[in-house]
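Worked example 2:
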Amino acid sequence: MRKTEFVKQNPNSRRRAASFLYVLQVASEKLSRQMEAEMSEANSKIAELQRELRDVTAHRNRLQMELNDASNRLQTAENQLTQTQRAKTTLVNQLEELRQAVDETTAAHSKVWQ
């Protein structure tokens, strides 16, 4: 005798099968609701992470712009420093030349007055 014939002939087996199918259906619906809830929670977390990623990206972009600005200012300051050092060197050389000229003039006047 096959199972289906047994079930057809035995009313208790039909009730048990129906009961079992009902339990499976309830369990399946419960699992489906649970999976939907988990999926909803996962989607919420994804949305939150996307917002955080946008915020972090915007912050990184602002910092990058500030870094570029600071780099430009540093480059300008370094150029000014180089120009100032060149001017200082020129002035130091001119001062030394003037001292020598004063020393020579003083020495020449000393000889004249002696």
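DSSP finds two helices and no strands in the chain. The mean pLDDT is 90.
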